[in-house]
């Protein structure tokens, strides 16, 4: 639990400046992905990491694959542990506010019809990884945009755990061996990419790696039944 009384309260709604939003929208339209070096205030990143570290091991569960997570546990594919986030913590709440601003802004710029955002902490212990995968298959998870915010302090190249992002499957590159880019999981860095288009993997981790992974989703409601935010 966060027992620190001497910490400044988080900004309830850290600003997402219009030029930043515009550059995100432009990059997503043009490339389908973007890396942001330090989009969030350090106090908020620190608050998130403190909250992350204050959680018990028992709070984290082994991550599964895809939406039917419990049914598809396979540690040969991924070996991280995750904790789904809600608004109980003030820093998480501030982060969700910021993502809500991004959701509304991207809908305005790109007419994506993003409906909600779900996210979890991911803890990759030494020796863990996540093999090459897509975050959304055949549209059945409703995931449109994947976001990862990295929280590992003082990340060094020897610590591993880079995100390798492969070329879009829409360009006939399903067998592409070479990554399009490698994102270093540096504290405060964020990557956003189209969930259905870009295969990606987390390279083997040499030192505990902290991140917040999330997805903007569309609502595939049928006949007025709202898709549950699971
Ligand atoms: O942590 C990362 O860099 C990517 C995580 C990921 O691919 C996922 O959780 O689906
Ligand atoms: Fe992924």
Textual characterization of the structure:
One of its GO terms (molecular function) is L-ascorbic acid binding. This is 2OG-Fe(II) oxygenase superfamily protein. Its cofactor is L-ascorbate. InterPro entries: HIF_prolyl_hydroxylases (IPR051559), Oxoglu/Fe-dep_dioxygenase_dom (IPR005123), Pro_4_hyd_alph (IPR006620), Pro_4_hyd_alph_FE2OG_OXY (IPR044862). By secondary structure, the chain is of the alpha+beta class. The chain has one domain (18-64, 77-217): q2cbj1_9rhob like domain (Jelly Rolls), CATH 2.60.120. 20% of the residues lie in helices and 23% in strands. It is built from three helices and eleven strands, in the order αβαββαββββββββ. The strands form two sheets. It has a seven-stranded antiparallel sheet, with helices on one face. Strands 5-10-7-8 form a four-stranded antiparallel sheet, with no helix packed on it. Helix 1 packs across helix 3 and helix 2 (42-54) crosses helix 3. It is globular. It starts with 17 loop residues before the first helix and ends in a 13-residue tail after the last strand. The relative contact order is 0.20. Bound molecules: 2-oxoglutaric acid and fe (ii) ion (FE2). 2-oxoglutaric acid is lined by residues 122, 130, 135, 148, 163, 200, 202, 211, 213.
What spatial order of strands do you see in the largest sheet? Answer: 1-9-6-11-4-3-2
Q: Number of helical runs? A: 3
User: How can the largest sheet be summarized?
Assistant: 7 strands, antiparallel
In total, the number of domains comes to 1
The CATH class name reads Mainly Beta
The gyration radius over C-alpha positions equals 17 Å
Report the structural category.
Answer: alpha+beta
**Shape, please?**
globular
Helical percentage: 10-25%
The helix-strand sequence is HEHEEHEEEEEEEE
CATH architecture assignment name: Sandwich
Low-confidence blocks of residues = none
């Amino acid at each position: 639990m966060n027992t620190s009384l001497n910490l400044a309260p988080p900004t309830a709604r850290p600003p997402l400046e219009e030029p930043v939003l515009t550059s995100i929208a432009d990059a997503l339209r043009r490339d389908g992905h973007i890396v942001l070096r330090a989009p969030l205030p350090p106090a908020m990143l620190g608050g998130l990491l403190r909250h992350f570290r204050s959680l018990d091991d028992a709070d984290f569960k082994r991550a599964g694959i895809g939406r039917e997570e419990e049914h598809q546990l396979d540690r040969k594919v991924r070996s991280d542990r995750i904790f789904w986030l809600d608004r109980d913590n003030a820093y998480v709440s501030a982060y969700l506010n910021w993502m809500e601003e991004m959701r509304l802004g991207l809908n305005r710029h790109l007419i994506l019809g993003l409906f909600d955002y779900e996210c979890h902490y991911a803890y990759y212990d030494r020796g863990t990884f996540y093999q090459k995968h897509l975050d959304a298959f055949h549209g059945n998870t409703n995931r449109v945009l994947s976001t990862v915010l990295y929280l590992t302090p003082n990340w060094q190249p020897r610590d591993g755990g880079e995100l390798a992002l492969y070329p879009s499957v829409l360009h006939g590159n399903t067998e592409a061996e070479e990554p399009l880019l490698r994102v270093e999981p540096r504290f405060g860095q964020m990557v956003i990419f189209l969930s259905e288009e870009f295969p990606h993997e987390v390279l083997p981790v040499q030192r505990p790696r902290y991140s917040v992974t999330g997805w903007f989703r569309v609502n595939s409601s049928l006949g007025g039944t709202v898709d549950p935010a699971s």
